[in-house]
Amino acid sequence: MPEVFYKDPAGYELLSYDYNGFLVPPFPNVHENLEKLPDMAIRNDDVFLLGYMKAGCHWMWEISGMLLKGSAEYSLQDKTAAMLERAPQASLDQLPSPRVLNSHLHLHHLPREIFTKKPKMVFMTRNPRDIAVSSYHHLFQMAELYHYDGDWNGYFHLITEGKVNYGNWFQYMLQWEKDIKDHPELPILILRYEDVKKDPIGIIAKLAEFLELPRNDQLFQDIADKCSFSKMKAAKPAYTSQFRSPSASLFRKGVVGDWKNWFTVSQHEIFQTECENFKKQSTLFNIMDDASF
C-alpha cells in the first residue's frame, strides 16, 4: 500500500496510505488489516458503528457499549481496539460479544458477511464544518502518525481537496447514501451528532429500540450522564504519549458550532457552496437542517 504525502499551500505534508484509490490513515499493519477485512467472519450480535472521522464515533461507541452491556460503566478499552482498519483481526476475534465494531471505511470495504448476516449498523453524521476543524486538531496533535505541521488554513485546503484520510466529506457521504439506498435490506440507523448533544436520553432510547434492547429509562439517564463530554474526557485515557501537547486529548471540545471560531469569511463561502451542491444531490442526508450547516 503506497504512502501518499500531500502538501498544503505552505509546503507542509500530510501522510496517508492509498488503498485502491481511497486514502486511509497510516496505522501500523493497516495494509494487512484491510486485505483481510473482506473475508472477516462476523457474529450475529455484532453492531457496526460507521461514519466519517470526527463525526462523534468515540462518543457513540461508548454509548452503544453501555447499552449492550446494560450498565453505565466505561469500557476499559478505547474504540480503536475494535476499529476494523486499525486493530489486527486476531485482536478483533478476541473481543467478547457483543462487539461494537467501528470503522470510517465505505460499505464495500467491510466484511462480506454483513450482506448475509445483516448486523445492526449505526451511521453517525455531523456538521462537516465542525468535522473539518475537529479533524485538523486531531491530525495536527498526532504528529508522529500523520507528520503534519501545517496550520488550519493549510489543512482547510487539503480537506476541501479531499487530500486527507477518508477523502472529501461530501463525496464520502454521497457514496454512503448510494450504498444505503442500494441495500435497503441492511438495518442502518442514521444519527446526528447535533441531536445527541441536544437530546441524549431521547437518542439513547432510540438507539436501544433499534438494537432491540428492553426499555430502561434509568439506564438511559445513567448512560447520558456518564457519556456527557466533560465526564468522558475526564474518565478516558489521554494518550499523551501520542500527542504534541501533554494536555491534548481525543476529546477536545465536543461542542456544536466551534467552526465559527476558525473559518474565515472566504472559507465559509467555499464550504457553503459545497454544502448547497451536496443538498441538491442528497435526499437521505438532508435530515441535516440548515442550522446544522
TrEMBL record:
InterPro entries, sorted: P-loop_NTPase (IPR027417), Sulfotransferase_dom (IPR000863)
GO molecular function: sulfotransferase activity
Domain of life: Eukaryota
Family annotation (Pfam families): Sulfotransfer_1 (PF00685)
Domain Sulfotransferase residues, every copy: 45-276
Record keywords: Transferase
Family listed: Belongs to the sulfotransferase 1 family.
Name used for this protein in its record: Sulfotransferase 6B1
Organism of origin: Octopus sinensis
Taxonomic path: Eukaryota, Metazoa, Spiralia, Lophotrochozoa, Mollusca
